[in-house]
Design goal:
Layout: E1 5-10, H1 13-25, E2 31-34, E3 41-46, H2 50-64, H3 84-100, H4 103-108, E4 110-111, H5 112-116, H6 122-125, H7 133-154, H8 156-177, E5 183-184, H9 188-200, H10 212-231, H11 238-255, H12 265-289
Helix pairs in contact: 3-7, 7-8, 7-9, 8-9, 8-11, 8-12, 9-10, 9-11
């Protein structure tokens, strides 16, 4: 009586060869053939061995899935939001204004003594000012990339608002812990806030996959390494950088309930308007009330 065979399709001859070695190691005889149309390769096994053969291949694939360079993501489609160019343009405009009208810098820079007198708006206005072209180029080049990824993950309006609040959080920590009154300016805290938001985003995948823990640990330590690389430069404002990064981590948790709505126009419109108001109102106060 002729034995009945079952077929296991493979994507390529190489994969068929690889799987045949797996089956041989389990004592399962198999034959490799190409289908008549030449589209796929197949492994032929006896029908009695088919369940065990299928199980062996599935176990092999599960144990070796992490060796591939290209991996399936939990939420496919890493997005980059080019709206981060808007932030770069605004920073450039503020730099030009501060150079052409020197009073703008003194009115808007982060002054811990003035903040103690109630000038809260300096938490926000100081992020739009830069000391020189090198300072400006460093923040805009790194910020353009990190903000683009942050906006792609959290949504344009929500992402802008989150990184802006994280930058303000960095300035707030600078004011609280600074050993003496001092002046500072720059968007470094905001940029580090974006890094914190990106480092913490994978935490929300905890219950989505058994591989989430590995991704969370990898993303967090990658964020820490990038923070050390970009945020701990000699001569930089370490308190503002560290405060921005920690604020980004915290705000990632605040934004978590809204991630499913991040691509909705209404949410991004409201967050975008809040972001715009936090630019306009602090600068209006800075130019009309600061002394």
């Amino acid at each position: 009586m002729e034995s009945v065979t079952a077929k296991i399709p493979a994507r390529s001859h190489r994969q068929a060869m690889e799987w045949s070695l797996v089956l041989v190691s389990q004592g399962i005889e198999c034959t490799i053939q190409q289908d008549p149309q030449g589209a796929v390769w197949e492994l032929l096994v006896s029908s009695d061995d088919f369940p065990r053969a299928r199980q062996s291949i599935d176990l092999y694939r599960a144990e070796n899935r992490h060796w591939h360079w290209r991996q399936e993501l939990f939420q496919p489609g890493l997005l980059f939001d080019w709206a981060s160019l808007l932030w770069v343009v605004l920073v450039l405009v503020f730099y030009w204004l501060s150079r052409s009208r020197p009073g703008i810098e003194s009115a808007g820079l982060m002054d811990t003594a003035a903040l103690s007198r109630g000038q809260w708006w300096r938490l926000f206005t100081g992020m739009w000012l830069h000391a020189d072209p090198a300072h400006l180029a460093s923040n805009t080049s790194i910020g353009f990339v990190l903000l683009g990824l942050t906006l792609g993950r959290y949504g344009t309006g929500l992402g802008f608002l989150a990184v802006y609040l994280a930058g303000a959080g960095g300035n707030l920590l600078d004011w609280m812990l600074a050993p003496s009154p001092r002046h500072s300016l720059g968007a470094s805290g905001l940029v580090m806030g974006g890094l914190g938001l990106l480092a913490a985003q994978s935490v929300f995948l905890w219950n989505h996959s058994p591989r989430a823990r590995k991704l969370i640990i990898t993303a967090f330590f990658a964020g820490i390494m990038l923070f050390v690389l970009f945020g701990l430069n000699p001569g930089s404002d370490l308190l503002a950088h560290g405060g921005g990064f920690v604020s980004g981590l915290v705000l990632a948790g605040v934004c978590a309930p809204f991630l499913k709505l991040r691509h909705q126009g209404k949410l991004n419109l409201i967050a975008g308007l809040a972001f715009a108001l936090l630019i306009i109102i602090p600068w209006w106060l800075a130019l009309t009330r600061a002394k």
